[in-house]
Amino acid sequence: MTKKKIFIICVIGVFSALLAYRLIYVISEKIDVRYIEKHYIFDKSFHADQKNRDFFADKYIPNGKITSDTLKFFRFLEQRLAVQSLDQLNEHLIKVKEYLGSRFKESESRRLFELYKKHLECQIELVNDKKYRAGNQAPRYILILLNKIQNLRRARLGKETADALYGSEVKEREYILRKAIIISDRTMYGKEKETRLLMLKRDMWDDRDAPIDTEGNPFNRYQLKIQLYEKDISEMDEKARDRMIQEFREKFFSREQIKRLNEVDEKIAREKKKMDQYRAAERKILESTVITQQEKKKRIESLQQDFFGKDVGAFRRSEAMRIRADGGLNKTAH
Fold first, then answer.
1. Residue range 27-45: average pLDDT?
2. Contact by Cβ (8 Å): 63, 105
3. Half-sphere exposure of residue 73, counting CA atoms within 13 Å on the CB side?
4. Taking the domains of the chain in order of start, what are their residue ranges?
């Protein structure tokens, strides 16, 4: 067999291996997405610890159980007894052992120290292993990553301990991410999104309030409503769109607040109309073939003065920034 044939076979082999790896990765990613859509990391059967107790007031874990307070204490130890690098890890562990020994009974100190070491080993593995880094910032993929991280903790510490230690934090993050996935879905209409959000809250918290819901503020609730009904609004004509927005405002705001919001809308509409008119006039000057570049510049400056008056300086500064960002001198906004 000639060297050329051997080289071709090797190239084909490498290409096939890369293709197979990519195919496995894509299939694995799709499996992860389907799995996380149907399975919660923590559902309503897990009661997150929300009491925010002072660890030192309790001295140890209530009734000898691991809770989210233990995690807070471990993070306190990481900061209080921090070292400069992993090369000094043994030094850090010695300090932690001494610190625990000086504050707890021997059996409690020993148990805490062994758990702390496992927690720290998990932290180091998560930082150093690339598969636990977020390559995609979309909520769905962050949720998949969160599931992988908790599975690693369960494998290293045992499911019961890992869930007791990290469960409250992970459950809250999971809820936030799942809400974001529903809210940002551009394929669903508002009613379906609202139904899905109610189901999510029921599935994860049952009849209890989710501790991190932030829609109590009327403006936040209004903004959420607009986000939920984004698809509905985008498919309406102007009159129907304005009517729906007014209906939403009437649910959340007083008459005086609605009046101010409407005034803001009118101001924005006027400014947009003026900017559209300016751009049309500017474009006619820039596209002219019968005047020089110098004359175009003079006419545009005069046009800006006519349109923006005392605010012309601020407009020109923002325009200069826009032109630099566009990378050209004669570009108009669209």
1. 76
2. no
3. 24
4. 42-213, 272-334
* Average pLDDT score, the chain: 85
- Taking alpha carbons only, the member of 172, 196, 203 closest to residue 182 is 196
Tokens of 96: 């932690």
> CA 215, CA 194: separation in Å to the nearest integer?
13
Above 80 in pLDDT, residue 9? no
Measured over the CA atoms of residue 203, residue 209, residue 211 and residue 217, the dihedral's sign is positive
CA–CA distance, 261 with 293 (Å, rounded to integer): 43
Considering the entire predicted model, what is its pTM? 0.74
CA–CA distance, 160 with 106 (Å, rounded to integer): 23
Compute the Cα dihedral for 139, 144, 145, 147 and give only its sign: positive
Q: Tell me: the pLDDT tens digits for 146-177?
A: 999 999 999 999 999 999 999 999 999 999 99
Q: Which residues contact 172 (CB under 8 A, 6 or more apart)?
A: 48, 211, 212
Number of C-beta neighbours around residue 81 at 10 A: 15
**Euclidean distance between CA atoms 228 and 225, whole angstroms:** 5
